[in-house]
Each structure stands twice: as C-alpha cells, then as structure tokens.
Amino acid sequence: MAALLDDDLRITIHGRTVVDGVQLDLDAGDRLGLIGESGSGKSLTALAVLGLLPRGSEITGSIRLDGRELVGRGDVKLARLRGKRVGMVFQEPATALNPIRRVGAQIGESLRIHYGFSKRQAHERVVRLAERVHLPDPEQILQRYPHELSGGQRQRVAIAAAIATGPRLIIADEPTTALDVTVQAGILDLFDREVAESGAALLFITHDLAVLHRIAGRAVVLSAGRVVERGAVADLLAAPAHPVTAALARAAYATSFVDVPASRS
C-alpha cells in the first residue's frame, strides 16, 4: 500500500486553477522530489495533503495516505493526521516556530497532543530527539527561544518536531533554501539518515535539482500547476526533455554544491 498517492489532484483558489491533474506515488522508504519554479504549485500540493490550503480553495481528485482518502475529510480528522502520520518541515523555521515558546516545548507538543505523554515523558523524548538531529548541548538549547538559535539550529528543531511521532510521511518544503552551503549539506545528511533509519516516505520540495540529486532518486517537475516531466533525477539532469527541466538542469550545473552527472548528449 502506498504511503501517499495523489491521483488527478486539482486545486482551485477563488475559481482559479493552481494545480491541475497532479499525480504522486510514494511507498514507505521512497524519496520523491517535487520540483519547479516559484509559483508552480509544488507547495500548494503539499499543503493539500495536510489540509492547510488557504481560504477559498477547492480540491478535486484523490489524496490517499496509507489507503485512507483525505479529500473531503473535516478539519478535526485532518488535524489528527498532522504531526502524527505526516510530519512537515517548512522553508523558514523562523516563521514556522512560535517565537514566544521555548523550542523544547514545541518539539514535544505533538507527543503530548497525540500520545498523551506527561511533561516528564515528553522532555525525555525531546532530549533524545535533539541528540538525534545533532543539536549541541540539548538540555541547554531546548530551553532557548527560536531567535536565540542559528538558522541551521532552528531547522534542526523543526525536523525534530516533524519526526517526533514517527510519521509515515515526511514533507520537506524547501528546507535548505535559506541556509548556507555547509549547513545545507548537514541538513540533507540528516534527512538522508532519518529516512533510511525510520523507513518513512519523503516528499522533498525544491527549486534546485542539484540539491534534489543529493537526497532523492526520482522527481516530478511542475510548471504552472501541471506535471511537465517525471523520472530519475540523474536522467532529468543529464537529458531533460522539457524546457523548464532544462532550465533547472542548467542552474544545477552552475552550482558546485553537489556533483551532477555528466551530460549524455
């Protein structure tokens, strides 16, 4: 059974179609990239899985998580899935994290909501999670507020919160965009290890094929809300068939962040 299956997904906002016929398929342990330029509909596709689309949105088609249909489910039922079966890591943790709550409390929140952990149980689990994502001096750093941490540390906090309940699916929406190259590499290593060890499926959203080549084996390319190409990331880099993919590949070759395969042409 697929961890996530989007079939003929269409999203309209105030009557305007923004995602049109998208199909995604992830099994446990899969790593799928969803890539495209700004405004291509990739983040909206992810938000649809979580039931977090903006007001005025309508969805048709199907979104299945472990065989359960999500389209048409009420907010209460979707809220039970968020943070428990699906973990989300947003692009900018400085805005995703609550600025007036200590980061340890934010990591442990889903444990208390979904599993009824006591304060002490949650704290013990959170310390282990902080160690797992390589936060330095966990006992001290968990008492800090988001603004007291570096960008890389905030993103590690966000990842710890996303994996706290052992989700079946992890969605990462441009999680390395605001980070420098060295910190990016560390965050990608963290995702790599987490998926390998937990067996969760990973949907990794980005505009950067070079980054995607480091973390995922296959990708779906979006443009103006439509799928324009799909396939192995190495093939999309070496022999892109669509102009949008070709532009993304040229940008990937222009960066030295990761090695990309030599062109087949």
TrEMBL record:
GO cellular component, one term: plasma membrane
Pfam family, one: ABC_tran
An example Gene Ontology molecular-function term: ATP hydrolysis activity
UniProt keyword terms in alphabetical order: ATP-binding, Cell membrane, Membrane, Nucleotide-binding, Transport
Domain ABC transporter: 4-249
InterPro entries reported in the protein's UniProt record: AAA+_ATPase, ABC_Ni/Peptide_Import, ABC_transporter-like_ATP-bd, ABC_transporter-like_CS, P-loop_NTPase
SMART domains named among the record's database cross-references: AAA
Compartmental location: Cell membrane
UniProt keyword annotation of Electron transport present: no
Membrane topology: Peripheral membrane protein
CDD domains: ABC_NikE_OppD_transporters (cd03257)
UniProt cross-references to Gene3D superfamilies, sorted A to Z: P-loop containing nucleotide triphosphate hydrolases
Family the entry assigns: Belongs to the ABC transporter superfamily.
Protein name: ABC transporter domain-containing protein
The organism of origin for this protein: Dactylosporangium matsuzakiense
